[in-house]
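It is worth pausing here to work through a concrete case rather than discussing structure prediction in the abstract. The textbook approach is simple: state the sequence, then state the predicted structure, then interpret. We follow exactly that order.
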Amino acid sequence: MRSRPAPERTIVIDGKLLPDILNETKIHAIVHGFYGKIRKDNLLGPIFNGAIAPEEWPVHLAKMCDFWSATLLRTDRYEGRPLPPHLAIPELEEVHFHRWLSLFRATVETLCPPEIADLFLDRALRIAHSFRLAIAFRRGEDSMRITPILREALS
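Step two, the predicted structure:
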């Protein structure tokens, strides 16, 4: 009996076929490039470097690669809950989310064609909004005042 190879997975996101250029190699480049910028950033570097010990960065980067692989490639590699560690950082404010998104946008727009950069940025904007809502709720703030950050508002 001859066996047939497994069919390739077809991934559709927002009604569009995922381009082949979005793969694990691209995700690795984006994650490592982005967090390289974060670690050196005057605003975000102290927060991230204070929350993640130097020897833990390889583990964090691998986890973020797994997260984005699961998010966009529909793999099942990511296990975890990304919100709780962010809830544990009391100094997170709007300015931090704007900077995070601006650095992320710059990274994906540098490393990706526009349609892939848009996929990444769209997900990042959604994630940031949900985190901001959860943080406001956790702090007892009026979460109704939290409006989505728009890509046009990013530098």
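Step three, interpretation. Strands lie at 12-13, 16-17. The two ends are 59 Å apart (CA to CA).
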